[in-house]
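Two proteins follow. First one:
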Amino acid sequence: MGVSKKEKLHLYTRLTLILFIFSILFIPFASCESNESHTYRIGVLSIYGDKGDLKGTWSPMVDYLEDTIPNSSFEIVPLEYDVFSQKIKAKRIDFFYCNPLLYVEMSRLHGAGRIATVQPFWNNSSYAGMGGVIFTKAGRDDINSLKDLKGDSFVAASDKSLGGYLASSGEFHLVDINDADFSKITFVNSQKDVVLSVIEGEIDAGTVRTGVLESLIRDGVVHKGDVKILNTKEYDDYPFISSTKLYPDWVFAKTASTSDEISKLMTIALLTMPADSKAAISIGASGWTVPADYSSVDSLMRDLRYGMYVDYGKISLKDVFIQYWYILVFIILIFVLFAVHSRWMLDKKEKSQLESSNRLKDLFMDIMRHDLLNPVNVIRGFSDMLYVEETDLGKKESLKMICSQTDHLTAMISSAAKLARLESHEDMEFKVQDIGLILHMVVDSFSTEFSKKGINLVYENGTEYFSRVNDVIEDVFSNIISNSLKYSPDGSTITISVQDKDKFWKIMVADEGDGIPDDIKPLVFDRFRRADKKGIKGSGLGLAIVKRIIDIHKGSVGIDDNPGGKGSVFWVMLDKA
């Protein structure tokens, strides 16, 4: 079914009306948006306090950029060296123009990017690069090289200037000269004043940026013969005398927050700027060239520990730990393993030596008991036989003394062997036993001796005093009771008791002998130390054996005066089981 002409006309009319309304509503807005202007701020490094002149100097540049880049306006912001970084960090500027030293820092610290390098000119010809000139007053025969400047005074315009100071510092660095080698360094904030102070003899030597001397000579301020150039270097197609390596010139750069679109437009505008334009002439250049490589400046700053590299190469303990923690952990682990292994080997060696020593000691003790006791027993046997057969009273008394001393020697050999075996107790076994039963058994073994001396025994015959002990504990009680019997007079009383002392059992043996002086009490448990009692037999090892056995049981032993009167109380403390 076809569409009539009237219907077609009606449809075309509706489409035309829609297009008309669309053009009224949207096209003007799009046009307004595309014509919207944006202001960009250009930070320019102010040197030697020339802020007031910068805006006037850069006014032709602003006019050129606004004419070249549509819908854009530009504002020049003079910035001192010290505030440059904070302005970029705060995103207060979009582009900036500065010396190479400052650009390297802004690039490293804030991600700035170079757009173009300034193209200076001399005698109507452009050139590339800048450096420093080191000079002294003409006629200074004592100064002919850089090393001759040690101990002399030196002058420069600013310590923040690449051509005016740092380039020369790089040359001094190569011949091992630093700032401390000069008698003094002066900064005068003017390249012209640097030259004049040297020529007038106020300062021994100085440095200025390449081209400064030639400009002053051309203007008639100084004469070529007024100065002596040091460390001269010549470069092809470079119009100035130089004493240093050449570095790239000042740079126009963008901040990290500046869009790529306006950055591209700015790059095109700078690189196409005519050499004879007011903008180029106003900044003393023939225009701009593609951005130079500033890595040589970065290397110089690093070598001289300048700016952000002031602490370059210095690593704190914190930095070492953060960067190399895994190496430190590995070293510590190796050290620990080495220490553990060394300790293990040492313990193994000591254990082996101890075992060998114990075997030798045991062998010696066995030999001593066997090979010494045998002849002692033989002597005793013959002495007894001679004593029975002898009729001379004097000789019988001598034989009796021999028998007595032989018995004493036998006791000493037995005690010494026992004490030696106690020195190595690693294999001793401990088990829970009733101290009361052990005491009862020991007391019974001395019943005959008690009877012979008519000694009254008071024994609190209790039981269930349980402690974890070795069977050798019996020798402790035997020695203490035997010691009390020796020193107790006939007819006296010996009291044996056990007291409950919280975590311990306190076993006490009290006698009514002469007692032990206070100055002797600490010594009676030492080897071969005994109270001076004439006529009392003993080896001097009995109480030493007691002390050793109690030490092995981690207990304590001591002597007190008998609170009941005359005599002493020997006591032993053992852990409860």
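Second one, unrelated to the first:
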Amino acid sequence: MNKIDGRLFAHLRKAVVFGVLLALVAGMLLPVYTDEIGWRLQERAWLDGVDKLYSDNCGPNTLAAPPFFMWPVRWYSAFFNTHFPDPLFIRISGVAYAIAFIWLVLRLVGRIGRSGEERDVLAIIAASLMGLGVMPLLLVWSRPEQPIFLAAASAVLIASAGWRSPGNMFAPFNGIAYSPALASPGTAWRRSLMILALALVALSYHFKAVLLVPAFIACIAFASRGRAALGARLAAIALLLAATASGSHYWVKRMECPMDPIVAKQHARQNLAGQLNMGTISKGQLVLKVLGNYKLHNYVERAAPSVDPMSSWLPINRVSKDEMDGWRGGMTIIWGVSLAFAVISFIGGSIAMLREKVVPPEPVIALMLLGAVSIWCVSQIDRNAYEASYVLPLLMLSIILALSSPHRWAPVRKYLGAVALAVGPLTLLSIVLVAQLYGPILLYDARQRNFLPYHPWSVPVFGYHDSYAEIMGAARQCHMPFPKDAQNLLIDDVTYFAFMQSRLPDHELAVMAPQFRGKISDPIAYLKAHNSSGIIMRCRKMLPELREKAQRNGDFCCIAPPDWGDGPKG
């Protein structure tokens, strides 16, 4: 590449990274989706002593004490959620974590790139893949996927600290440098324990992190070299395997629902393992199902503008069917081409590895990450939008690491530069088009303080103090106890913030909404059985029969136990 090429790549890298960061900041306007609040409701062990689901109808598994290594994460969640009980904080944290992820990726690219031009190319491709379609908006969702891909990126970054020698001049990879320096015991322990801590954080948030354990182990193995570092690496890996066994048991048992076969069936139908356990499919059918279910492009499609986004997390009918298909097809091609180059680079790196008898870390960790997303892909039946925010960031990390594999195939690097020059401008165009599609409605939503007509399953980001005053006014009308003294309150996405510190709150989706409440047919009977302190939620979310008994303050209704009566039948 000549100097003009170098300047062109550098300018394009700055433009694409700036565009993606701007799109992430614009994510502040995205209303808070119900699942972002729901996960906070389900990981409350520091407040309640146990984690729970949306309600207690699954039986003993509903209320589960997490393993000891998960408690720091539960404390972190409890501290920030109770000190900043506001939808605005959820969105600020989501945007901040998404920006942090991009920063981590750029830092990683700075380490694994072997020249200025290659670093620019890798940065353009990485930022472009995260900037296409509505991916920037998915990245700001404050769900368990965020800490998982943040932990994975941080672990790879820590491991990469010892990969390069000064000036990238170490043979035998013709400028592809691997440092011959041996790590001191102190350095080995520090890196190994930091990666272990990141893995434990990921395991604390969701079962999905179990699939990334091989990648974390590879990071520990490649973070330090030499016999003096062996003890630290083996100890960290042993502790990680023990935590994985404990965490896997916890997550599997917690997601079972022995006391409610309706909910259990709903859980089981979402993945092949559940269907096998329920007897929906046989072991013989499982192999064919797995082979036919390997469709990574489905996640790319979830990150494209859609006619009818899941639960209207974005406004519906902003694109036509043909436009949606065009978006999906174009984005699939870009991801497919990037993945194809990654596979070619991986093969080249593997050949060089066999020839030079040196095991390079980039292709190995890339393979571990691809394996994690592949296992999740083949196991899932329902592929929701938020699954894309788990699979695609990890797939991007896998692609970038594979592209940096050591090989001597100069044409591959040359044509990869051409790919970057093509996808960079397309990403900038995508950001502009998405802003035109959704920007006006998101700006309208930002001025709303209660109901969002375009987002019935989301809540406004701004102005919660007005809603809080109405919520507490309703609570006083019903003579409800203070939040710290209340228990098993029936709340919704908005009133949960006001009663964050109550004990074991139940979400209206799992008690009143017919699609999630399982065998609960009488909400009042359920609440009575759990000695509930009452119901407080948006009036429009309340069953009509209950609304007749409720006291109202503004947009919020409440019912205290003395006013329940017999309650409506389901």
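SUMMARY FIELD: Residues 165-176 have pLDDT under 50 and may be disordered. Residues 489 and 533 are 5 Å apart (CA to CA).
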